[in-house]
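Hi W., the pyridoxal-5'-phosphate complex you wanted:
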Amino acid sequence: MVIGIIPVEMRGLRSHWTAQLPNQELVFGQTFSDHMLQVEWVEGYGWSAPEIKPYGPLQLAPSAVVFHYAFECFEGMKAYKDKQGCIRLFRPDMNMKRMNNSAPRVSLPTFDGAQYIECIKELLRVDQRWVPDEYGYSLYIRPTLIGTEECLGVRASNRALLYTICSPVGPYYATGFKAISLYANVREVRAWPGGVGDAKLGANYAPTIKPAREAAKLGCQQVLWLIGEKHELMEVGTMNLFVFWINKAGRRELITPALDGTILPGVTRDSILALTRSWRDELDIDVSEGKIEMAQIASAANEGRLLEIFGAGTAAVVSPVKRILYLGKDINVPLDPSNPNSQAGPLTKRLNDTIMGIQYGDIPHEWSVVIN
Ligand SMILES: *Cc1c(COP(=O)(O)O)cnc(C)c1O
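Structure:
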């Protein structure tokens, strides 16, 4: 180690941007709004009064359990501004429910989700100027829960901190859809039966970066996570996976892996299932949750039965897939057969437009929660 190689001005925390950037210059998760929400928990006492304070560094002991044993879970949600200038959330109760499912898995305390949504609303009122008002732009909200006890013993933390920060973000695809290539990873496994793949734990993400960088070297934007000897499909990067095909029975079917404990229960996933089930008769499609094997994808592609594949999550809503690199060979996925220039199939596009329409308040729906 060379002492003194880091210039003085780069030592310590890099201060965050305090200025608001023009929308076009936003990079995901790099600028933060002025304030943060913070609530402490102490075993035997419970939760303290929530506080909204300026965004800034936390003071934590180097022995805090979060740094050693990854006592951490988080959420990802967004605030959208509608045409009237009102701020809206999308199904925030689902994020709270999921966080209260993740927390006990790492022995962190649960909390009242409805009350915490009220706290987040208050934070958004304080930082309302940080919610971009252009369609496609939004304020990403990151609730985070960490164990803070100063202790190297491997056991549950007797102290915790629940905080929320916000980051203005642009549309995932600045110039419309851009279909992605997937690297079907037959070596590393993201989650496994009996594991924690269904909880949004920080510990699930750091190990995914090495395979993602290897995928990038092979020209693929995301990892397609597989499991088992049959190479069953699980998820795409940090998105849920949907396959639209003509199944062996000759039926048009939208299918996504079932929530068997290895799959993160996405809010977008749930919304897509509910919407497509409501369109079932109109579109004459089956909607199902179940196993999908790579061999089935390959044969569907060969036989012209593969229609669309896409990832789904809060960041991009849907992310169309054009190619899967599997065991050294490309499987090409159709986009829109009626339009060679299109970067998304018709069902992928309709889902995107409907969900965004609801999020931005253009389509009235109970999923969209207005903040008064
Ligand atoms: C967060 C996440 C998703 C998507 O969940 P949404 O609630 O739709 O944003 C999917 N898969 C993984 C692994 C995730 O972490």
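The first helix runs from residue 65 to 69.

W.
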